[in-house]
Amino acid sequence: MALIKLAKEVEARRQELLRRINMAPNGTATIVRMRSDLLRIIKECPHLVPIDADLKHLLSSWFNQGFLTLERINWETPAIVLEKLIEHETVHAMKGWADLRSRLAEDRRCFAFFHPALPNEPLIFVEVALAKGLATSIEPIIDEQREISNPSYADTAVFYSINNCQEGLYGISFGNFLIKQVVQELSHEFPHLQNYSTLSPMPGFCKWLKVVIDNPGKYAIPDDNLALLGQLHGNSWFQDSESVESLKPLLIGLAAYYLMHAKKGNEPLDRVARFHLRNGAILERINWLGDCSDNGIRKSAGMLVNYVYRPSLIISNHESYVKNHTLAISPNVAKLVPKTL
C-alpha cells in the first residue's frame, strides 16, 4: 500500500490531465499531435524533456501490442489510407499512384499496424516482395515496368521498406512486432517460403566513414586506402568503372567493420542493424551497389544489407543479443572485415 501511495504522490499531475484529454473525442490523436509538435522544439527547449517523458510513457501503454491490429494493404484499401503510404514512404520514395499500384501487385505484399483510436491512420507499414532467392538490388523490386511474377513460385519474402507514419509516436517500437507477425501471416499464405530477408540500407555508414577519413591516425588507415577513399566526393563516383573496381573491396570491408564493430554503447551504431539484430535476425550479406539512388549513394555508399530472419533462430538470437550483446553474423560477412582498418 505504501508503494502505491508513493507512486501516486510522485506522479506528475499533468499525467492525469493527459489521461482526461485522451478520453475526449479524438483525444488520442490530439495527444499524438501534441508530442509531434513537442519533438520539433525540444532541442531548443530542454526544460520540456520531462513533459516528453510523460507523453512517451502514456503513449507506450496506450499503443502496446494488445491494442494494435495488423491489416494487409491492397488496391482495394480506402484511398485515404493509400495516400498515407505514398506520403510516409521515406526509404524508397513513391512517384505516385502508378508506383503504389506496382508495389501492391500480386507478387507484392504490404502490411500495416492500426490502432482503434486512430482510424485510417497507419502507424507503421512494411513492403514485401515475393521473389526467388535473396535480393541484391532495390531497382528490380520497385521498377514499375517489371514483369509481375507468380508468387507461388517464390521462395523468399524480401522486406524492403519499413516506414513509421506517426511522428508523435517516435521512440515507441512497433517494428519488432510487425515483422514477426508478418512472417507468421506469410508463412500461412505461402507455406513454401524458405527465407525471410530484408534488403536494408546502412543510413549511418557514410557519416561514420567521414569520421574515419578525418581521423586516419585513430583508425590506422593505410595511405593508399585513404587515397582511394578520396574518390568518393560527390554522388557520381559509382559511374566510373575504374573507381568502382578499386573501391569495391575496400568499401565492402569497411561496411562489414562498421556493422560489426562501430558501436553506440554496447549496440551497433547503425540504427537499422541495431533494430534487426536485436530483433533476432542474422547479418547475412552485404550487396555492392544495390541502391544507386542519390539517397543510397549519399548515406550507404550504394550498398544494401540482407538481414535474414530464420524462424527457428529468432528467439535464441534475440536472447543472445539482449543478454550478451552477441551479434548473429554469417561467416561470409565476418571474413570481409579487414585485418587492419
Q: Could you explain how this protein is built, in words?
A:
The chain has three domains: 2-62, Malonyl-CoA decarboxylase, oligemerization domain (Butyryl-CoA Dehydrogenase, subunit A, domain 3), CATH 1.20.140; 66-198, Aminopeptidase, CATH 3.40.630.180; 205-334, Malonyl-CoA decarboxylase, catalytic domain (Aminopeptidase). Helices cover 46% and strands 14% of the residues. It has 16 helices and nine strands. It has helices at residues 2-10, 13-23, 27-41, 49-62, 79-88, 97-103, 139-142, 175-189, 205-214, 216-219, 223-229, 241-261, 271-278, 294-300, 314-324, 331-334; strands at 69-72, 108-114, 124-131, 156-164, 195-198, 263-264, 267-268, 282-287, 304-309. The strands form two sheets. A seven-stranded mixed β-sheet has the order 1-2-3-4-5-9-8. It has a two-stranded antiparallel sheet with strand order 6-7. Strand 4 (156-164), helix 8 (175-189) and strand 5 form a beta-alpha-beta unit. The longest helix is centred in the C-terminal third of the chain and has 21 residues, at 241-261. The radius of gyration is 22 Å and the shape is globular. The model has no long low-confidence stretch (mean pLDDT 94).
